[in-house]
């Protein structure tokens, strides 16, 4: 071997040695990159799993709310269909009394007995409705209130104190459980 060849071989070995020394560092950086990538991949899988869990919770919650909405709508329809049942049942007694009074009208010549019978049926109807929360509105001689009264007409007030007040009630107003259900039709003094 010539000296040049020996130098090259020596230089090559040195170069190879340097390469070998630098390779482990590259291998380390490659392995750390690989561990970073596997760590990121694991983290990504965890995030995807969290997203899937949240999506599942959201879909279940949406389904529960939809079921709740349907159930309450059904209950509301059922309530509206049977809301008047209790009132109707309580009025059946009044209807029965009215039928009996009508039969007595055909056979009776005593007007006082007929009046008493009609008064009894009327009082029973009135008491039954009051027990269900119906309350008549007191309007006569009160100041006119457009939230409570419907003015049919205005007439000259019989006295100066009755100006702007209700002087006659054509149709009474009613409250049901303290809520206005019918305005009173009145005549107002001016």
TrEMBL record:
InterPro entries membership: GrpE (IPR000740), GrpE_CC (IPR013805), GrpE_head (IPR009012)
Region (Disordered): 1-49
Entry-linked Pfam families: GrpE
Residue spans of biased composition, Low complexity class: 29-41
SUPFAM superfamilies: Coiled-coil domain of nucleotide exchange factor GrpE, Head domain of nucleotide exchange factor GrpE
GO CC terms: cytoplasm
Gene Ontology molecular function, alphabetical: adenyl-nucleotide exchange factor activity; protein homodimerization activity; protein-folding chaperone binding; unfolded protein binding
Alphabetic keyword roster: Chaperone, Cytoplasm, Stress response
Domain of life: Bacteria
Listed GO biological process terms: protein folding
Subcellular location as annotated: Cytoplasm
Main location: cytoplasm
Its biological purpose: Participates actively in the response to hyperosmotic and heat shock by preventing the aggregation of stress-denatured proteins, in association with DnaK and GrpE. It is the nucleotide exchange factor for DnaK and may function as a thermosensor. Unfolded proteins bind initially to DnaJ; upon interaction with the DnaJ-bound protein, DnaK hydrolyzes its bound ATP, resulting in the formation of a stable complex. GrpE releases ADP from DnaK; ATP binding to DnaK triggers the release of the substrate protein, thus completing the reaction cycle.
Stated family: Belongs to the GrpE family.
Subunit structure: Homodimer.
Stated name of the protein: Protein GrpE
Organism: Chitinophaga terrae
Gene from which this protein is expressed: grpE
